[in-house]
Amino acid sequence: xxxxxxxxPPNTALDGRLSYAIxxxxxxxxxHAAAMLRALNLHPGQELLLMxxxxxxxxxxxxxxxxxxxxxxxxxxSLRRMQEAGLLTREPAAHDRRVMVVSLTDTxxxxxxxIADMWRTLERISVRDLTPDQIETFTECARIIEKSVRDHSRxxxxx
Length: 159
Hints:
Blueprint: H1 17-38, H2 46-55, E1 59-60, H3 61-68, H4 72-84, E2 88-92, E3 100-104, H5 106-109, H6 112-127, H7 132-154
Antiparallel strand pairs: 1-3, 2-3
């Protein structure tokens, strides 16, 4: 199916060309990543939680929330689905029964290399027409933009 998405923003977004380009990029990238995740029987975002657990298994639900930067309800729903799929367990912490500790099962742990392969493939697809310098510049710019947006979001609503 040919791509009929225009790279030119609609007239209303002409004064927001960068923001429109970011939106289009994020949509395309997320869509491709979602298709790759479906092949692993995962929903978008679940791989982010798993990657945090691959790095440090046995984190609390609150720690995971902070590390992935998603809202509480999204993380809770994802963890519940992942527990039902046998990828992880959630158990009360010994020091405080209200705190839930999230741990990988063998099934969840077995997804580490397939997820790493998926990210390598997605990276290869994403950068195939870029030079190493362009990749570095884009990555730096993306981090600066993300920080700017996050900082603004933390300001008072009337800012």
